[in-house]
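Holo prediction — 1HE.
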Amino acid sequence: MSEPLLIVETDGPVATLTMNRADKRNAMSDALLEEIERFFRKPPAGVRVAILHGKGGHYCAGLDLSEHVQRDAEHTMYHSRGWHAALDRIQFGGLPVVSAMTGAVIGGGLELATATHVRVAEPDVIFQLPEGRRGIFVGGGATVRVGRILGADRMIEMMLTGRKYGAQEGLALGLAHYVVDEGQAMVKARELAGRIAENAQLSNYIMIQAIARIEDMSKADGLFAESLCAAVTQTSPDAQEGLAAFLEKRAPRFR
Ligand code: 1HE
């Protein structure tokens, strides 16, 4: 039997997804993207957090360029919209997702990483948007997700010059949230995933659904949306438990 493109392992509430195309530096083929989307469409029961990483020392070298050459304009648009749907599924599917990043986080790899919520980088990480060197443009959401992290000005410069940001620069810019020693990205990702899994699930869900959307709203709409989110979470059984646990000086036992 051939190797799976995506290896999924669950350990209690944490699912680990390993992109398994090491020989292609985990370049994102349509089939691999479909596997990732399939997982987030219907995560296994009991899973509360996902970790995403790549086998073989690289997170993801971006779009599989060997598949790209055969598409016309119409199908390139559909393909790009397919990436948007898949990466929206990761960002808004309901599970917090932690990226454990090594090596290439390039092109579509960076688009993928920025659809995840927590990003841990090892020192060898390279963030790059080399589309200009390939005669193409981003299509997996970078103008929105990377642009909002870096700002349009810095993203334009990054794309025009094809510069590579390292892990520490990525940390300063917000492309990574943590930089850890070599070999430690998965260790840190598991630690963070375990901590996130202990939160009330509804609180995690609302964080994921609301905060990025509120960023797109006017101040007035955002504040109103925040109040609605507060109304939903603050009146949940988990809120009663969380507040009682605090006052009784014990760990909360969420549903
Ligand atoms: C690939 C890809 C790929 C590697 N598509 N096959 N992304 C890029 O422009 C990045 C292109 N890749 C690289 O710059 C380098 O491969 C790396 C820096 C990631 C790694 O270098 P290295 O020396 O370790 O490996 P390598 O020898 O360059 O690559 C190993 C194999 O992976 C080789 O195949 P082989 O059959 O010759 O062994 C490479 O061809 C293959 N490979 N990356 C296809 N990306 C939704 S739109 C998003 C638009 C983009 O993502 S554009 C950016 C695409």
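READOUT: The two ends are 40 Å apart (CA to CA).
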